[in-house]
Amino acid sequence: MVQNTAKPRGRPRSFDETGALERATQVFWSKGFDGVTIDDLVAGMGVGRPSLYAVFGDKRAIFLRVLKAYAEAKGDRAAKVLLSPQGLRASISAFLRFAVESATEKGSARGCLLICVAPLVDDPEVRRFLQNATAGGAALVEGRFRDAITAGEIPSDFPVAERAIQVTDFARGLTMRALIGTPRKTLLRDAEEATDLVLLSRPGKATPEG
């Protein structure tokens, strides 16, 4: 019997691809898209130039991968908070508090890559990605409102689409205020007030309990 002694093609990668993308995130955070060079990415990601191009592509391709990975991770965490088994008010409050806590997390850059860096990139694919991400976030909140209608927590005429957009707008606003240094304590307080505002179905209506 003849043994197959053929060697596998190529050389095994000597770096963690996921870890390299996480480090690239910090590079883009620190310098923005326009300020980053390939040399910055080579140094920051810990990947040689030939491997960087072969595995990740050019700067634009790397940024798109970073953006998608960042959005997926943050979106999963936000969805878990919003859809946890609790009352509607607690869910919306937790969603807005998550925006504050992630934007003011110790040891990381203030704000959010999707809100504070990506919108400044003049690229149609980046813009489409941000538009889809924004619509997806609003749809997630709208779905939570519809579940609350089914559960009898809010009336059937509650303006779910409008208030879902309002919730995501509040989340972006809180994130931007974190970027300019507003204290976390202040932002958390404002998140609670914002929760009460969006849960008013009509002027004069009582805020749902949760």
TrEMBL record:
PROSITE patterns: HTH_TETR_2. The keyword Transcription applies. Keywords: DNA-binding, Transcription, Transcription regulation. Gene3D superfamilies: Homeodomain-like (1.10.10.60), Tetracycline Repressor, domain 2 (1.10.357.10). One of its GO terms (molecular function) is DNA binding. The keyword Transcription regulation applies. This is TetR/AcrR family transcriptional regulator. The lineage of its organism: Bacteria, Pseudomonadati, Pseudomonadota, Alphaproteobacteria, Hyphomicrobiales.
